[in-house]
Amino acid sequence: MGQRVRVCIVAAKYNEQFADALVENTVDEIGVLMPSTRVDLIRVPGAFEIPVAVATVLEREKPAAIIALGVIIKGATAHADLVAGSVTQFLQGLAVEHRVPVINEVLLVDDEKQAYARCIGANLNRGKEAARAAASMVDVFHELDRTMPKDTGRAKKTRHA
Ligand SMILES: Nc1c(NC[C@H](O)[C@H](O)[C@H](O)CO)[nH]c(=O)[nH]c1=O
Ligand SMILES: CC(=O)[C@@H](O)COP(=O)(O)O
């Protein structure tokens, strides 16, 4: 029997009401879409701390997907934009470097109304979206492993050299 699929959620605590709802919706939807999945949850203080936690998880184990969750609400200064831009860039870099899907739902919103709609409301819920994207990428990677085993390219090159 195959190993149980593992998904890791790295979620910021900042803007707690919204961040917690994002986590809850993500976990609930994973339960619906991938019921036998083991879900590990790591909480960090703010969105800025997400990439270092993701990098550490990737260094120590290789889950089928990592889901990054955070809620950045724009303030009076450029702080929110700087944090959001940096987090987004590092998450994509880590995903590509380690070849593990990193789902990015570190949200940059204008105000609490936008945060409510995306974290608590049903229609735009980014927690459910995160779970759907993770489930989809787990399927994509299983299919890639099945149809393109890792050393296929090198083996072909060697044969034709
Ligand atoms: N303003 C928000 C933050 N700011 C905190 C930073 O993420 C970080 O924890 C701090 O700069 C120390 O390194 N974090 C959020 O997740 N959301 C915000 O709206
Ligand atoms: C303290 C923060 O991280 C964030 O709320 C920045 O807010 P501001 O831009 O108003 O200083």
TrEMBL record:
InterPro entries linked to this entry: LS, LS/RS, LS/RS_sf
Keyword DNA-binding assigned: no
Gene3D superfamilies: Lumazine/riboflavin synthase
EC number: 2.5.1.78
Residues bound to (2S)-2-hydroxy-3-oxobutyl phosphate: 76-77, 118
The protein's annotated pathway: Cofactor biosynthesis; riboflavin biosynthesis; riboflavin from 2-hydroxy-3-oxobutyl phosphate and 5-amino-6-(D-ribitylamino)uracil: step 1/2
Reaction equations catalysed: (2S)-2-hydroxy-3-oxobutyl phosphate + 5-amino-6-(D-ribitylamino)uracil = 6,7-dimethyl-8-(1-D-ribityl)lumazine + phosphate + 2 H2O + H(+)
Pfam families: DMRL_synthase
Catalytic residues (positions): 79 (proton donor)
Keyword terms: Riboflavin biosynthesis, Transferase
Domain of life of the native organism: Bacteria
GO molecular function: 6,7-dimethyl-8-ribityllumazine synthase activity
Positions contributing to 5-amino-6-(D-ribitylamino)uracil binding: 14, 47-49, 71-73, 104
NCBIfam families: lumazine-synth (TIGR00114)
UniProt function note: Catalyzes the formation of 6,7-dimethyl-8-ribityllumazine by condensation of 5-amino-6-(D-ribitylamino)uracil with 3,4-dihydroxy-2-butanone 4-phosphate. This is the penultimate step in the biosynthesis of riboflavin.
Family recorded in the similarity comment: Belongs to the DMRL synthase family.
Protein name: 6,7-dimethyl-8-ribityllumazine synthase
Protein's organism: Haloferula chungangensis
Gene that encodes it: ribH
